[in-house]
Amino acid sequence: MSIIFSIDDKKISAEPGSSVLFAALKNGIYMPHLCSHPDFAPAKKSVPVREIFRGAQVFANSLADRQYDGCGLCLIEVETRQGTSLQKACETIVENNMVVHANSQLVKDERRKNLSKILANHPHACLTCAQSKGCSRTQCSSNVPEIERCCVKFGNCEIQKVAEFVGIRQDTLRFVHKNMPVLKDEPLFNRDYNLCIGCTRCVRACDNLRGIKALGYVIDSEGSAKVGSMAQALRDSGCKFCTACVEVCPTGALLDKELKGVSREACLVPCKANCPAGIDVPRYVQLAAENRPADALAVVRERVPFPAVLGRICFHPCETACRRGQVNEPISICSLKRFAADNDDVKWKSRQAAHSSTGKKIAVIGSGPAGLTAAYYLARKGHKPVIYESQPEPGGMMRYGIPEYRLPLRTLDKEIKEIQNAGVEIKTGINIGKDIQFVELKKQYDVVLAATGCQQSRRLKIEGADLPGVLWGIDFLRDVRSGNKPSIGKKAVVIGGGNVAIDVALTALRAGAMQVHLVSLESRAEMPAHKWEIDQVVEEGVKIDCSWGPQKVLGKDGRVSGIALKCCTCVFDNNGRFNPAFDECKLKQIEADTVIFAIGQAPDTSFLQEGMKITANSDGLSVIAYGVFACGEAVKNPYSVIQAIAAGRKAAGDIDKFLGGDGNIDEVLVEPYQAGHNFGREERFAYLGRGKMPMLGVSERRGNFAEIELGYEKDSAVEEGRRCLKCNMRLKFSPVCMPPESWLEFSAAGIAQVSEKEGVYELLDENKEVLAITGVMNIRQGLEEHLNKNTAAKYFKYEEDPMFTKREIEMLQQYLQKHGKLPGGGASELDDLF
User: Fold this and answer.
1) Extents of the domains making up the chain
2) How far is residue 2 from each of residues 98, 140, 243, 468, measured CA to CA in Å?
3) What is the predicted pLDDT for the residue at 810?
4) How is domain 3-128+147-256 classified at the CATH fold level?
């Protein structure tokens, strides 16, 4: 049964046991607070520890009988039989018929008094400065020392907004910098104890919410709370670097290090943001950690139809971005994907939604990862896709360009079979333009999608390139994969420094070469191939010659005998364009029976009608003509398999829209999952190293194409998944209730409340993101002119100011300082600001 009480004569309903603060905020009544947070226990329930560390400095608990008493900003007056009494709203439990006064003069005065105590230990000069609006903080007209100015969060700071709401007393003591430690040598976030107000939010987030207990607080001799870590280094304190402490800090005492991303989620969960297909990486990693591989697989399959393939060959940009890598080593995300795929229980199929047939037919040219993916999702939407493949078997470069030791055919065939089972028809051995004309496809199908990939090796026109014994990378890999292994002799030289060149070199070893040289234009650090691939060829005995380019192929008795090389002094010019320069005086030769060039690939688009052209596009999708699309490497090359899959997804969504659908190809194949807020304490968590992938021994790889990586066993996968920092859980915090904003609804009624004076207005979208900041001579008139133009605007704020041009520039500069861009993402006006 609900409790009914009143706040400032307004009747409020609350759950029994709720605090007045919680009940007020839930009912839309703001009360100031800095120590309270909606997700964990109030400050009063937090107990001090024996000692804490601030870097190398140790602080002991001085007052054993005291604990932190809270910020004191949520004071209220409660009517009692004896009169009224001042109480803390966060500690006062609601009662029936309770009468609360939240805005009496006594309450306001006492709140300001308590705020003064807080600000005496926190920089606040900028909060009271008349020039604070639009201030860059780099120069100060009042000559306030930099260490006494507000921090980089100024303008977007909780304590600033609370202080502006409560009001700062004129007799507030000047902040005196105490030279507390500023710690910047730990992973992920910085700690500046000069900005800490001792609210203990971080301690309670780490203790009560996360259960990690890496932070604590003590009471000093003056009765103030001092927060710190339980050991000198965070990793020795048991920290799991979840950054919950940063999330809840109301000041700049705890700040994320540089975050890169276009959104908050992209910044904090970069593994997911950096996956081209948008796979929910944290979710399947955490499911793997709970030994739920089938559910983890379902998560992966929500976005891609090739989990087992990707678990073996993905270049895993998610791992490069993984924040665990800043602690020690990134999570082996790709290997966990394979673990999930190798333990498939096919239950995900039962969760797939059925779609009725639309009667629409799509011709897909090419059965590589882009074409197969697009066809799969189009079939899932009820359309009828038919794939035309020129090769005898489907798979494109996955089948013919990736060696068996990396991607076994049984793995590829199994996942292609699932795509066929979804309703995709595949016709092999058909060349468009020869066996069937492109114009005929257009007549027979509602849509044609070109997804041909890069299956042609780029040629290099140098002397001797036409000699017997000269091979081309993609052709060589295709021949070996097809069982037509060419005779390459004992000595092979591979020209190229990319991923294909690596595969060619390792394939040459398995095809009979006893000695393989890999010649790269680039230096070792510049080679496009991934480091782990380079390490592997070295491990298998391939000799790498960096910074050398081919001068000519040497011949003897009518076939290859070696290659002449010239020293490459630089690969790119001053504009970053590929434009190699050579020292023609520095030459050398390498003997060879076979020279294999692996210097790039190109798509074959000869099947297109005359006049048709594929235009490059950053998202891997191009519209060639009405009803004719292209995706993947046909549009932008080279593409990795995961990038091609992402392009196929994009194509499927756009084609579905073109055919009258909603374009939504997302699937839900597993029950919603979220890791619990309590992570638990785990000693030496930060020291846990990346689990090693079991590998086939080097000696066992010679002369065969057996798979090199053997995959994680259950225990190894669980241990690896447990290393995850669970960065995604940072997004699950309840938002802190901030002081009310002065925005109005962007409507005729809202605008009618505005004066016709000079000033500046801000337009905001439905998420309260600023769209525009404009200074005008007549605020109401300016808003009315925008009312029918800016359909994205839902709210607005305004300030009256006769110096509206100056104020507009100040506000734009303040926005730019905070967001790194102008409202709406514009950049052309930057020069006008400075």
Assistant:
1) 3-128+147-256, 264-349+689-722, 354-455+603-658, 457-599, 744-833
2) 13, 53, 36, 89
3) 80
4) Ubiquitin-like (UB roll) (3.10.20)
Q: Report the pLDDT averaged over residues 206-229.
A: 96
81 three-state secondary structure: coil
Closest CA to 79 of 51, 104, 48, 47: 104
Q: Which residues, in sequence order, are bridge partners of residue 79?
A: 84
CA 356 from centroid of its chain's CA atoms: 35
pTM to 2 decimals? 0.86
> Helices (H), strands (E): how many in the chain?
27, 32
Whether pLDDT at 619 is above 80: no
> At the topology level of CATH, where does 354-455+603-658 sit?
FAD/NAD(P)-binding domain (3.50.50)
Q: Please give the C-alpha separations between residue 167 and each of 108, 110, 252, in angstroms, as whole numbers.
A: 8, 11, 20
Task: Indicate the pLDDT class of residue 638, thresholds 50, 70 and 90.
Answer: low
Edge-to-edge strand ranges of the sheet holding 83-88: 10-14, 3-7, 99-101, 75-80, 83-88
Q: Which residue has the tokens 């699932």?
A: 418
Of 261 and 660, the one with more pLDDT? 660
Q: In whole angstroms, what is the distance from residue 448 CA to residue 232 CA?
A: 63
CA gap 824, 772 in Å, rounded: 7
Total Cβ atoms within 10 A of residue 378: 31
What is the predicted pLDDT for the residue at 815? 79
CB atoms within 10 A of CB 834: 7
Q: Starting at the edge strand that comes first in sequence, how are the strands of the sheet with 189-192 ordered?
A: 182-183, 189-192, 254-256
CA distances from 215 to 122, 252, 549, 823 (A): 21, 17, 57, 38
DSSP output for 674-693: ---S-----TTGGGPPPPPP
pLDDT at 262 over 80: no
Mean pLDDT on 735-757: 88
Residue 813's pLDDT band, with cuts at 50, 70 and 90, is: confident
Which contacts of 653-658 are long-range, i.e. CB under 8 A and separated by 24 or more positions? 653/377, 654/621, 654/629, 655/362, 655/374, 655/378, 655/383, 655/447, 655/449, 655/629, 656/377, 656/378, 656/381, 656/383, 658/447, 658/627, 658/629
* Bridge partners of residue 310, in order along the sequence: none
Residue type, 336: L
Token couple for 179? 């030279």
Q: Which residues partner with 456 through β-bridges? A: 602
Q: Dihedral (C-alpha) 11, 16, 17, 22: value to the nearest 10 degrees?
A: -40
Say what the pLDDT of residue 811 is.
82
97: left (phi over 0), alpha (psi -120 to 50) or beta: left
Task: Give the residue from 454, 542, 465 showing the smallest Cα distance to 497.
Answer: 542
Say if 354-455+603-658 and 744-833 have the same CATH topology. Answer: no
**Is residue 202 helix, strand or coil?**
helix
**What integer best gives the mean pLDDT of the chain?**
91
